[in-house]
Amino acid sequence: MRTLASLIITAALALGVLAGATAYLARLNLPDQLLIGQTLAAPAGAVSPAGGPAAAIARAQEQITPELLAQLREAGVERVRLKDFAMARWEGRWPFAMALMGLGLGAWLVRSSSRRAIATGVVADDSADAAQAVASIREAVAGLRRDLTSAHDDRERAKLITARLSQVQRVHVDAVLQARPVLIGRLGLSRFAAFMDRFSAAERLVNRAWSAAVDGYLGESLECIDRAGPAIEEAAQRLRA
Question: Please, what are the domains in the chain?
């Protein structure tokens, strides 16, 4: 079921991207009232005067008038790009709606699969362990920030940073990543994505703080640690929500 869900989600994302790319395109066979008065976002049409280079019939920022609309249609122009969006003009609205339905179906399948795996014992319910791991990361970062103020010199600070953050990387971050299938089942794709957005940001800051301390860039390391605190706090809040 997970494979099917992944295929559905991938196909839905591709369809959504393609449909979204047409949001500001309007077909010129639409009723006049949907086109006249609109502003072009890009040049439209092209004419080739005898002996001269091709030139656009209409320029960007030009407003569509009845005369211009008739000229574009006569020249065989099928679509123009407009500055403003309108659902009534969007030819990709139905494919986009199908993409949203596909994403919803894929999310439901992923969630159902995770719950079934937990219920049958195929996958352990590690969501409590993940919550504890996030709490441990938050406490480790907060404790590190406190202890750095009492360190005697930069060498001691760097040693403290690498030791503490190595533990965070090896144990706590890995525990959260191992629990991803279960978290998707418990939270759903939308809430899981919101959680992972902030957790991934905190993880990157922790990794950068560690590597900067190893390379001797203590100032950058301290800055990353300061930024990691709020990021992991937000992740913890989204996991509880």
Answer: 23-91 (3.90.105), 124-240 (1.20.120)
